[in-house]
Design goal:
This protein has about 300 residues and is α+β, with helices and mostly antiparallel strands. The protein folds into 2 domains: about 200 residues, Alpha-lytic protease prodomain-like (Up-down Bundle), CATH 1.20.1510.10; about 90 residues, Cation efflux protein, cytoplasmic domain (Alpha-Beta Plaits, 2-Layer Sandwich). It has 8 helices and 4 strands. Helix 3 packs antiparallel against helix 6, helix 4 packs antiparallel against helix 5 and helix 7 runs antiparallel to helix 8. The two termini are about 50 Å apart. The relative contact order is 0.12. The structure holds zinc ion (ZN) (2 copies). The site of one zinc ion has 2 residues, from helix 8.
Length: about 300
């Protein structure tokens, strides 16, 4: 098992443990704010699950029934989880609304807060671990996961302070108020998860700077060709797919045209990792002279 996989599985286990502790804290106190904090952990569970799917399923090589690979498995799980997160946020909002109409004192607030504190400490420790190992392993995904977990630790701290304040002042309305704020935050992050995954499922093209890089490479590596046009890109998970038409002199041999293609493919693959390039070769009279990459 690779260390990346171990860390991804670890995130899932830590996420489940933290969720369990936070649900316990809610159950002990009846605090809507602590419930919202617990449900926020589902966001981390979702991310951890998607990361695990990405490593296990999405990284599987292409096979006879999935000729282009399995990259989209990652998006599929993320959309599913994102929708669950949004449902969780709506659930909290309903609970907060009820609490708002009829604020009530919490049961065992001190004990509940202590359990919640343990869960937050576990999260903080794991976040620190992810950032440290992610940096060492040069994995931007792990570092991003760790940093995201840090923001959750901050939210949890905010929630705990809110509940503590409610306890000290007796303003129990602070509890549903805090929960509503967390719910809005969850809604926002959940919709971002869904949006990012949907654009991947919709075959979004590569970012403009990557596209420009690909254009420049074609222009500089395709010596001997006349022009390139109909450049199309899409990305799926870690994979990028590039295709375009390459116009060559009509009398050029297949051998020479293929030579150019191999050269361009290799250069693009060097510049943009995990790229598959497909080139359609055409004779000169197919020139478009519009939307083309001009070659000298
Ligand atoms: Zn063409
Ligand atoms: Zn070939």
């Amino acid at each position: 098992m690779s260390e990346t996989l171990k860390l991804a599985a670890g995130s899932l286990l830590v996420g489940i443990a933290v969720l369990g502790l936070k649900v316990l804290a809610w159950w002990m106190t009846g605090s809507v704010a602590l419930l919202s904090d617990a449900l926020e952990s589902t966001v981390n569970l979702a991310t951890a699950f998607a990361a695990l799917v990405a490593i296990r399923v999405a990284a599987r090589p292409a096979d006879s029934t999935h000729n282009f690979g399995h990259h989209k498995a990652e998006y599929f799980s993320a959309v599913l989880e994102g929708v669950m997160i949004i449902v969780a946020a709506l659930f909290i909002m309903r609970e907060a609304y009820e609490g708002f109409l009829a604020p009530r004192a919490l049961d065992a607030p001190v004990e509940g807060l202590l359990v919640n504190l343990v869960a937050t400490a576990v999260n903080a420790g794991w976040a620190w671990m992810l950032v440290r190992r992610g940096t060492a392993l040069k994995s931007p995904a792990l570092v991003a996961d760790g940093k995201h977990l840090w923001t959750d630790v901050l939210t949890s701290a905010g929630v705990a302070i809110g509940v503590l304040l409610a306890l000290v002042t007796g303003w129990w309305i602070l509890d549903p108020l805090m929960a509503a704020m967390v719910a809005v935050n969850i809604l926002w992050s959940g919709s971002r998860v869904v949006k990012a995954s949907l654009s991947g499922l919709m075959d979004e093209s590569v970012p403009e700077e990557t596209l420009q890089k690909i254009r420049d490479i074609i222009a500089s590596e395709a010596d001997g060709a006349v022009e390139a046009h109909d450049l199309k890109t899409r990305h799926a998970g870690r994979a990028t797919f590039v295709e375009f038409h390459l116009v060559v002199p009509a009398e050029m041999t297949v051998f020479d045209a293929h030579e150019i293609c191999d050269r361009v493919e290799a250069a693009v693959a060097r510049a943009v990792p995990n790229t598959r390039v497909t080139i359609h070769v055409e004779p000169e009279h197919k020139s478009k002279h519009t939307g083309i990459i001009v070659l000298d």
